[in-house]
Automatic annotation (TrEMBL):
Keywords: Cytoplasm, Hydrolase, Nucleotide metabolism. Its EC number is 3.6.1.9. This is dTTP/UTP pyrophosphatase. The active site is at D77. The record marks R15, T78, Q160 as: Important for substrate specificity. It is found in: Cytoplasm. Its cofactor is a divalent metal cation. The keyword Hydrolase applies. It is an enzyme of class 3 (hydrolase). It catalyses: UTP + H2O = UMP + diphosphate + H(+); dTTP + H2O = dTMP + diphosphate + H(+). Belongs to the Maf family. YhdE subfamily. GO terms for cellular component: cytoplasm. GO terms for molecular function: dTTP diphosphatase activity; UTP diphosphatase activity.
Length: 197
């Protein structure tokens, strides 16, 4: 059997790693620390795409600085939006409470932008998923916050965890909500010569 192709992963997200490993890829993590402050007037879509591209550029710089051999590199960003507002990761419990209350009984959108660098080429995609939450009681929100799940996640919840019971339905990409849309990602990587399945 030939060695699986290498992909640099400019991400510290365990969800992204798992979803890529599911595709059979061999991953090597590179650092990608960037400033995640939204620009004035920036839409959620533009914000997510800009951050994915900036993470990919930071990851590429880290690869070069570490003297690692060239290979395709992937970065992503997940952003939640409702009524024009951008919801990132909650700063604290009151922030998580505010986000979950905003989502209660209605829908919001989860945008995940993916950027793949392959030499001088940059390939990008954005998955856009609408998520409908059931009405949440104050007690449900408090119990969920106490679980600790909200704090490393955009929009203060993880659909793949206990917040699954909040979700009536989605329209779009489940893996996009989790943090990496597998269908769109496979298409981007296919353009770099990866073969699936
Ligand atoms: C909405 C939602 C988000 N998330 C997560 C996915 C992302 O990891 C996180 C959004 O933060 P991001 O800034 O997109 O990513 P990250 O900081 O976790 O990782 P990195 O920048 O190093 O790639 O929220 C879930 O796990 N489940 C969900 O249902």
């Amino acid at each position: 059997m030939s060695t699986p192709p290498l992909l640099y992963l400019a991400s510290g997200s365990p969800r992204r790693r798992e979803l890529l490993e599911q595709l059979g890829l061999t991953l090597q993590r590179v650092a990608a620390e960037i400033d995640e402050t939204p620009l004035p007037g920036e839409t959620a879509r533009d914000y997510a795409l800009r951050l994915a591209v900036e993470k990919a550029a930071a990851g590429e710089a880290a690869r070069v600085a570490a003297g690692l051999p060239a290979a395709p590199l992937l970065a992503a960003d997940t952003t939640v939006t409702q009524d024009g507002e951008i919801f990132g990761k909650p700063a604290d419990a009151p922030d998580a409470r505010r986000m979950l209350a905003a989502f209660s009984g209605r829908s919001h959108r989860v945008l995940t932008a993916v950027a793949v660098r392959d030499g001088d080429a940059l390939h990008t995609a954005v998955s856009d998923t609408e998520v409908w939450f059931k009405p949440l009681s104050a007690a449900e929100i408090e119990r969920y916050i106490e679980s600790g799940e909200p704090f490393d996640k955009a929009g203060a919840y993880g659909i793949q965890g206990r917040a699954a019971v909040f979700v009536e339905r989605i329209a779009g990409s489940y893996t996009g909500v989790v943090g990496l849309p597998v269908f769109e990602t496979a298409a981007l990587l296919s353009a770099c010569g990866f073969v699936f399945p």
